[in-house]
Structure formats: C-alpha cells, structure tokens
Protein 1
Amino acid sequence: MKTLRQLFGSNLQQYTMMLALIALVAVFQVISEGRMLTSSNFQNLISGNAYVLILAIGMVMVIVIGQIDLSVGSVAGFVGMCVAISIASHGLPWWVGLLLGIVLGVLIGAWHGFWVARIGIPGFITTLAGMMIFRGLVIWISRSISVPVPSEFSFFGAGYLPEWGPAFTRMNNSTLLLGLLGIGWFAWAEVKRRAKILSRGSQYPMWMTTVRILLVAAVLGYATWLFGSGRPGTSFPIPGVILVVLVIVYHVITQRTRFGRHIYAVGGNKAAAALSGVNTQRTYFLVMLNMSFLAAIAGILFVGRSTSAGPGDGTMWELDAIAAVFIGGAAVSGGIGTVVGSMIGGLVMAVLNSGLMLMGVGSDQTQVIKGLVLLVAVAFDVRNKQQGRPSIIGLLMKNSRTPQAVDKA
C-alpha cells in the first residue's frame, strides 16, 4: 500500500475514474469489434466534445467556489449567433467577429459576476436568469433561423494540424512532435518533482520515477500514433490543441498561483478565507467572468465545426459540463475539484456517447445510462468523503490482508 501511494500519489482515489475510463474504452473496443480505437473515431470524439470539455474547465472553478452556472450553454449559443450575424449581416472580417465574440463573453461574465459578487445573489439564481435571457436573445436575434459562418471558422472547429517534414515517420509529423513534447515535458516534470522530494529529506527511489514516466509515455505514445496515423489530411484536431493549451494554462492557474489558492480557500470556507485576507468578492467576480469567457470560446468552436450558428445551439450544454465536473471528483459542497479531474470526467461521458453510438443504442437510452453514471459517481464521491469510509483501493487492500495480519491488528 505504501509503495502504491508513493507511485501514484497520496490520494489513490483520484485515479478511480481514470481506471474507469480505460476500462470503458477496452469494453467498447471489444463489443464494437475494434471500431472504438480508431483514428477517425477518436479524432471525432475530441472535435465533437471539445466545447463541453472547455466549459468543464471553467465550471470546475465555479463549483469549487460553491456556486453553479446554468447559463453557459445559452451564453455559448448567443455568442456564436452574434459572431455569425456580425460577419454575415454587417460585413465584419471573420477575425473581427471572433474577437467580438470573445469580448462579448467577457462582458456577459462581468454582468454575472456583478450580481454574484456585488449584490450577493447566488450563482444558481443569477445564471438561471442568464440562461433564460440569453436563450431568448438567441431566438430573437436569429429569428429562429441558422446563420452561416465563413470557412475560416472551420479551421478552429474542425481543422487538423498540418503535415510537414519527412514521410518515413508514417504519421502526421505535427502530431508526432506534439506527442514527443508531451512525453518530454512529463519526464522533465517528474525528474524535477523527485529532486524536490529528495531536497526535503524524503526518500523517493529512482525506479518509481522511471515507472511513472514509462507508463505515461506509453499512453501518450499510443495516443500520438492513434491520432497521427489516420487517413491522409487528418491528424490531431485543432479543437484538441486549443483544449490542451487551456488545460495547461488553467491547471497552472488553479494549482500554482495565488488566485488559484484563493479559489480553493473561498470554496473551503468563505468566512475563514475573508478573515485571512482573501478578497472574496473579487474571487467570485473573476471566476464568473472567466466562465462566460470560456463559454464564448466553446460557442465559437462549435459554430466553426457546424459551419453555422443555430437558435438551438448550446441547449443542455451546461448539464454536460456539470456532469463532467462531478464525475471528475469535484465536491458538491465546493472546495474540491481539479481541471485534470474534470477532463477525465468529460472524457468518460464522451467515450460513453461514442461507445453507445457504435453499439446502436438510441439517444433516449444513452441519456438514461449517462444519468445513472453521474448518480453513481457522485454517490461514490459522497460515500468516500464521509469519515471512516475507505476507498475502493483501501477495501481491496483490507480484504487481501492475511489472517496473520488481521490477528496482529
């Protein structure tokens, strides 16, 4: 048990959903007769779910501070429609329309942040009102018809990394480079992490660092091959690149910056955070503003993928984002949750959608299954946060103890 904790970290429970994700992929790969782990399927999986995963990045921060945002789908749909109309009807260049959409998202986030931080209205009520307002505005300004966007937007929503360099690699070289950079960065981070542990006087064998690097390198290497060896003209999707950049940026923000510490402090205990000098109003305001900023990016990516903005865009997106966050281990009461965990939760939902579709399961049954998965994941989280409740790993280790060990205990 001690070795496992050193190898994977002090909280083994955080790896449960990762194991569940791997198991889901393996099961669907067998049931679908090999159609799950294909280049085209995973490229579509990333491109088709990038907008929800981007929403989940902002949503985990909102949930950590103890709030909720029900307006993100409507905001994304409204921003996408405004961008499309500004270009199609007012003749703005596509890049100006894109910048306009991002600015609009920031302004909407400031609006929500004002009511939550300054007036003190709970985020649930504020964003419920926002959901109704912006859903109505989408239908109003679009007159219930779709509006096309320029072809340049397709690059952001459905594009791929370009091809270059020698052909002997037998895969897309941009994807290969991205994968090698990912492996190299993780190896460097692990070596640096080990040096930091040793500097504190603790023991951390080199073989553990090596095993961690090799495991992650194997996963990233296979993913690189999967995305880079598809049909000509395809590679790792551009929405995936944008998602990866955002995950890295927000992981650093939430885990390595003062603002990130303030987010968790406010979510853990608002009164104690205020007494320790944290500006709680500023934290609420910036987190809500950031959520709508990411919703604007998600809306722009979606219209780029679909090549048009429609009055129904964004419907129910907020529920998918919230589900991803809770499946990824965030606490209902706030104070707990990570960007990486939310990505794992979102990928679990994405793999479920993809696998069930490959099996021919209808959308109605898919919703039932996803709802049950969400309920079980949150129930598991609540159970294991209760005092004295062991994790699955703990139960397995307990049941595997020898009679002699039990007697000694």
Note: Confidence is low (pLDDT under 50) at residues 387-409.
Protein 2
Amino acid sequence: MPPTIDPAATAWLLASTALVLLMTPGLAIFYGGMVRSTGVLNMLMMSFIAIPLVTVVWLLLGYALAFGDDAGGGLIGTLSHAGMAGIDPAAVRNGVPELLYVTFQLTFAILTAALVSGAIADRAKFAAWMVFVPLWTLAVYAPVAHWVWGPDGWLASFGALDFAGGLVVEIASGASALALALVLGPRIGFKVDAMRPHNLPFVLLGAGLLWFGWFGFNAGSALAANGIAAAVFLNTLVAGCLGMLGWLAVEQLRDGRPTTFGAASGVVAGLVAITPSCGSVNTLGAVIVGLVAGVACSFAVSWKFKAGYDDSLDVVGVHFVGGIVGTLLIGLLADQVMTGGVRGLFYGGGLSQLGKQLVGVLVVAAWAFGVSYLLGKVIDRTLGFRVSKEDEVAGIDFALHAETAYAEGVHGHAPRGIFGHQHGKGERDAL
C-alpha cells in the first residue's frame, strides 16, 4: 500500500511551518532592539535576507544534501532530489506531503543561519554576509542535519537524541557564531563603551514572537497531532517560564535588581535548552532544563569579556551554552515514556546516553566551528568581511543601506546621513 496523508498531522505541520517562519522576523526584532540605534536596520536586514538566500539554496541543493537518500556512511545525502527533482505534490513523507516537510525543514535552516548574525552585529559587511549564508547552509547546516535527522544519519544511528534542533540549530549556530566573532574581531569600543540595547521594548516583543513561534518549532517536530506533540508543547511553555525565573533570580542575587533584558534573555535560554530535550523529558524534566539553562546562560554571557571574543548579542552565551545544557541533560533526564525506550541516568539508564549526547555535542561543535572559521577567513581575505573603521564608528545603517531608523536619533542626536547624502569626514566629525 502506498503511504497515505494524515490530515491532522498535515494541518498541524502547516500551522507549525508558518509559526517557525515567523521566528525569523521575531529574531530580527529581538536582535534589532539589542544593537545600537545606528545599526538597527542592518541587524534587521541580516535576518530578513536569510529568508530568500536560504530558500533558494535549500531548494537547489540543501534539502537533497540534508534529507536525501544517504550517500554512504551517514555523512551526507545524495543529489537525487536536487532542484526538487522527483518530488511531486502526491509524495508523502512521515504521513505529510513531502513538499510540506521540505518547507518545514526549510524554515529551520533559515532561522539557524539568521541566528549566527547576532555575533557579528555592528561591524559586518552586508555583501559578505550574503555570500556567507548560502555557503554556510550547504557546508555546515545540511551535513549536520543529515547526521542527526537524515535517513541513516550517523549520529542518529549512533543513538544521539535531538528532538527539534539542539545539535542542528543551537550548537551549530553557536559554534559558528564564535568562529565568525573571532574572524572579524571585537567592535571598536568593546570592553570600554557600554553598548547597551537601544530599544528594550523591541527586545521583549522579539522574545515574545520567538516564544510563540517556538511552539511550532518544537511541537511541530513531532510531525503528528498526538500526545507527544501535546507534551512537547507543554514542555516548551514550562522551560521558557523557568528560564526567565532562573535568569531573573541570578540578576536579583548578583546585581540587586531584575531587568527586562534579563527576562527576555532568560526566556530564550530556556527555550533553547528545551529544544533538543522536549521530546525526551517529562514535565518535571522541562522544569529542570529551563531552570538550569536560565542560570547557566546568565553567567555564560559574561565569558566574552574574560576571554576577549566579542559575541555582540550573546549567541554563544545563550544558544551555544543553552544548546549544550539541553542536549546533555537528555542523558540525565530522558524518560522512556517520552522516548519510547531510552532512559537517562536519573531514570535508571546509566551513563550510556549521556556519553552519546556528549559525542554529538563535541562533533557538531567542532565541525560547525572549523568550517565556519574557514569560510569566514576566505571571505575576509577575498571580499573583506568587516566594514571600515570610519563606517563602524559613524554607524553602519547609512553606510550599507543608505537609510536610518530614526530621523532624530534615539537620544535627539542627528544620525549620519539624515540630510539625504553621505557626509564627508569633516561633516561626520561635526555630527
């Protein structure tokens, strides 16, 4: 009998796909609020441009490499579906139309690429970013997705668990972000200027949109409208809540006051950590995952000042560290009721699953970091990845996009270029 379409699963995945796509504009607003006022448009554009760039390369090669038939060894897919060859509207995969599955996975790839941009905010050339994104999608995202989620992927066969993207999305983007931050170097004024978020309401709005979309991200990954999807949905809500509480608790004890920025960051940290584990832990496990992530990431974001790398918007501290926390806690908290068999250490499963999760973390982090560093270096040597010192100091919105977000500036100072032309050096100094 040919496979048939599950109408309920299809309806839920259609909604989930739209939710996940919304996460990229949500991320743009989240990141846009975190940067200074003279770089907000560039930050928004770095997320938005990922949508068409990744879509084109995904349909041409990305989906085939990630989810095509295994080419051997569980390392990469064949090109049998390159350019969507051999896929028609009647094709079914996992109970849903394969074209819908293609689109759902595409939205994951888009968001993951956009996440990386936060580490190089305020100093990256937009043209260089446009070159990096499609190359990164093919060289980093597609192979890792095949290892973890593809047919006969070697990490999946090894036994590493990643329900919705702790390895594929969070650790891959976080390690890649660290690599690019090292390639481009720190912003001018790093460790000297405060570089505070220019619009905290934007940050909270973006976090809210991300949280909303994350239900499709995680629960949609069940690829069914069933009890597991419902459990994952609840786990996603719980972990976001506990991530916020954990981060705010640290701020209260350490700094004497909780902040709105900490609340938004804590939510995202909890959601990041529950992404790989949402289909493996029960509700109590989700509480622990979210709380641990909120606390751990609140400390991790300060590492950049000690280590000297400038991860502008804390992609490493939140996504990389949060992804590691959530992926490793599967080895401790996996419940066979959720997994259908695999048990973590705290449920009598021993250390075996923790070891498998650790291998997944190390391999994906090493691959993503190494390839991203190489790509970044090549682009930097050929096109130049960083804007000029002059443009960085003046603000990159007008230099790269001939626009400014605020006609009078957020503090009443006229930004560069509001009179309709690019100022010369003397005029910039006067401003």
Note: The chain has 18 helices and two strands.
Protein 3
Amino acid sequence: MDEANHSVVSEFVFLGLSDSWEMQLLLFLFSSVFYVASLMGNLLIVLSVTSDPRLHSPMYFLLGNLSIIDLISCSSTVPKMIYDLLRKDKTISFGGCVVQIFFIHTVGGTEIVLLISMAYDRYVAICKPLHYLSVMNPQRCILFLVTSWIIGLIHSVTQLAFVVGLPFCGPNELDSFFCDLPRFIKLACIETYTLGFMVTANSGFISVASFLILIISYIFIFVTVWKRSSGGVSRAFSTLLAHVTMVVLFFGPLIFFYVWPFPISHVDKFLAIFDAVITPFLNAVIYTQK
C-alpha cells in the first residue's frame, strides 16, 4: 500500500505525430524552418524596439514583450519535438514533463493578460488620443508587464499544485509531442475525473472569457474608428486588424483544447503544431507588415 502511494514512473513516452518515417521527416523540415523563422522574426522585433528610438512607445514596448513571450513559448516545446522526430524512442523525464507544463501555462497566462493590456493601449490611443501619453506612461506599461507575469505564474503554479503530487505508477504514454495537463492527469493511478474537469474548466473559462472581452473591446474600438473621418482611420484599422488576427490565432486552438467536448486526436495534434510552431511566426509577420 505504501508503494502504491508513491510515483514510480520516472519518464513519459510521447506517441508523437505520426508512425510514418516520411511524414516525420517532412514534419522535421517543416517545424525546423518555421521555428528558425519564428526565432529570427521575434528577435528582430525585440532588437528593433530596443534599438530604434522611434519605436520607444507604449504600443511597441508591449509588442516587444509579446515577442519575448513568443520566443519562450515556442522554445519550451518545439526543440524537443524536432529532436524527437529523428528518434525512435521519444521520452521525457518526469521532471522535464512538469517543467514543460509549468512554462506552457506561465507564458500562456502571461500572454493573455498582455493581450488585454495591448487592447487597452489601442483603446486609449484611438478613443482618447490627447491623453494617450499621460495614461500609457512608462510606469503603467511596466505595471502591465509585471502584472502579466505575476498572473501567469500564479495560474501555472496553481494548476501544478493540484497535480504534481499525484501518484503515477502505471501507463506512461502521452498521445502528443509535448506534456499537456489534461493528458498528464489521466495517467495518474487514482480517479482524476473531478480534478481533470476542474483544471480543464479553469483553463477553458479563462480562455473563453478573455477572448470575449478582447473581441468586444475591439468591436467597440472599430465602431469608434468608423465614426471618425480623420486621415488616420485606415492606419488605425490596419493596426486593429493585426491585433484581432493575433487574438484569433492565439485563442482559437486554446478554446478547442479546453472547451470542445469531443476531442479528436489528430485535430488536437494539428492545432498544437499550429499553436506552437506557426502562430509565433505569424505574429512576427503580422506586426512587421502593419
């Protein structure tokens, strides 16, 4: 009985994305190209924002930090996935799995709050332009950034506090290419339906609520811009469209993961690849084009 109460699983095995060697090679090339492009694109944004005095504004301050988050986000799962695509045995240690979950939920929670901060920045810039620099002063921008990271850390630690002590003594196969919380919980040696539902509902509620808040905010800003006839309307629409596109790209996969009641393995994997590899790249492309 004492042995049953302690974890005996020291590592987990990823089932990966495909059993076909040709498909794995194709995914290796695809993921490598987009990962390098994501790194270069987001690093370029960070370097540009920090080195160009013309970009020392609240909007670009938040954008630069969003790029840093994207760099951390894709680097927490993609290098391991690319490495495993060339290996027969795709394993990760118990501690490594917990670390992956920690970073995924920390940067995810941080990015959600930062996106809301960016929506507020656009609201002040477009709806109250005369007060923009006084409202979005450096102190407030730093406050938004610190708050984002604190909330992200609290979200991640709270999630892990409920699951890291679970006993794992049986199956250790994860039908994915990275450690995600719902599948991790299902491998525990005790009944985890209630805990799994609570964790999934928590992330699902946060994702849906934040998405609705952002969409409603941008609709309000769009209406405000539409009513104006100044020369900067087209530029404002371009900026807002970039923000909305990024919000949809970020929240779309999250809502499907945590809210859709009928999970489909291959669809989940496709969206996971899209979210981990392509979204950070598209974010960099969208913002450098606007």
Note: The longest helix spans residues 193-227.
